[in-house]
User: What shape does this take?
Amino acid sequence: MSDIAPRPPATPEGVHPFPHRHLTGIQGLQPWEIMFLLDEAEQWIALNRGSAQARHDHRLAGLTQINAFFENSTRTLLSFEIAGKRLGADVVNMAVAQSSVKKGETLIDTAVTLNAMHADVIVIRHEASGAVDLIADKVDCPVLNAGDGRHEHPTQALLDALTIRRRKGRIEGLTVAICGDVLHSRVARSNILSLTALNAQVRVVGPPTLIPAAIDRMGVSVHTDFDEGIAGADVVMMLRLQRERMAGGYVPSPREYHALYGLTPDRLKQAAPDALVMHPGPMNRGVEIDSVVADDPDRSAITEQVEMGVAVRMACLDVLTRTRRGVEGWA
Ligand code: NCD
Assistant: This one.
């Protein structure tokens, strides 16, 4: 297995280590660019664990961050808000339910409006795949994708990679099984892109109805038998059944789904003895994962994933606004 190509030693003049204006997906990022964001996030973990007085840095002071979430969210919205505030930005959350979107305003008009308010960074979640790229094309400031349809959720993949790297000491060479509703999952897509780029062996595991056709072209192996799919895996990443994206009978009852694809303590015995259990949340306890497994501090990294989310989002907000802030070497 080849090592991750190192960051080019001499960055050509005018090109900084993360030459992207937006973060709309993992697609298009070089492996060393992913590693650069993970390295940048490390510094914020310690700061976030510090005392209330120490938990701030003011590098985004004076900048306006708009969070426009057109879909429900708990962790992603809160952690983007906390991340911006810890860095000193003025953070504004657009209340979509009370916005003109409900009066039929188009996405483009909303984007133009946000732009006219001189936002310095916009974070968007939208139910339509590709909506974030559309907005990124229309505004002058960096745009971060907080999840678009079933397409991508890049900061989730980054926080997952950071969690794995910290708990396992590496990503390269690990076997990661991504299990459940892969078909509707932007988390699965972004994780497949990032983990294969970082040279992990990725398996997708789930019922045939919930595995996208031709997903093997993304460099993963496909398993419809749960026990076989997690056998010997170093990381078992569970996904929620995304019923809001299902318009029909993709799965039998939640009970039957649990019997075939639910992660129980017994099932977990198939994986490596020290396998790490992950879940992006929100969890459906008793459906895709049992509480005993989810709440086992030795095996489950689920709360750590949430913690890493703040650090990763601080890193992304910092890195993407460097050009705008005129940081030396980035202007
Ligand atoms: C995920 C999402 O919204 O894509 N949650 C998250 O961001 N932590 C997964 C899900 O909704 O199941």
The radius of gyration is 20 Å.
